Amino acid sequence: MPEIIFKKPDGLTDKPTHYCPGCTHGVAHRIVGEVLDELGIRLRTVGIAPVGCSVLAYEYFNCDMMEAAHGRAPAMATGAKRVCPNSIVYTYQGDGDLASIGGNEIFHAANRGEKITVIFINNAIYGMTGGQMAPTTLPNQVTTTTPFGRDADDIGFPVRMAETLATQSTPGYIARAALAKPKYIIDAKKKIKKAFQYQIDNVCFSFVELLSTCPTNWGMPPKKATDWLVENMIPYFPLGEFKTPEDGPVKISTVTDRPSEHPKGPSVRFGLVHPKDSRIGLI
Length: 283
Fold this sequence. Notes:
- The protein is α/β, with parallel strands linked by helices.
- The protein has helices at about 25-40, 75-85, 95-100, 105-110, 150-155, 160-165, 180-200, 215-220, 220-235; strands at about 45-50, 65, 90-95, 115-120, 170-180, 205-210, 240-245.
- Helix 7 links the parallel strand 5 (about 170-180) and strand 6 (about 205-210).
- Residues about 255-275 and about 275-283 have low confidence and may be disordered.
């Protein structure tokens, strides 16, 4: 018998996904499924599915799953974890679900230091509802509700969720990765595995933001979408670890920098420090 060196992880079911061609939700699903297998935690894991493109995640992850109301996954995860503290509990949420209607939920779950893991998919747009502007939509990015591009002077700049959560004093693991190319995907898996390990060890709240593509609503083929992510999203949403529990209390001083126009401006704006220089996220 030939040796099997690659197969579908047990952490995923056999059901085909409904995602559009080129969408990297499937990549994120596989990474999470592999991590659940490799850490040996699948049978005691509870996942919380969101409202959005990944609303059917409960059909794809081969662990106990629950469906949350729009934006309320962190609240449901909090209840599941506190009732069953030996379970491994994670949420899987998009940018509309987490950063918009669920912004209050994620902020306070992180501030309370809930021992849960959050997988946050940032594709800079509302996917399921037709490509509207999301909190993470880039300046000048065209969407169905910003046909001339997002005007930051009129409706504000994109929200950097990882940096925002990293400013809280409560210990936590906050990181950002990308799903564009193999080297980025390898890095994403390492961060997700680290996030779950912190929960296994009962250390802290953990949050991994994954920059993802939406070829359908971006109006471009998959290859061009991954290139667009690298060229436009990563400069505005820099990759790295913004906070680890080993960092200690967060120190915040006066923020003086003002963001410049994107995507041509440098990657570090609004007083944010690139994570390769600082995990704190603010100077």
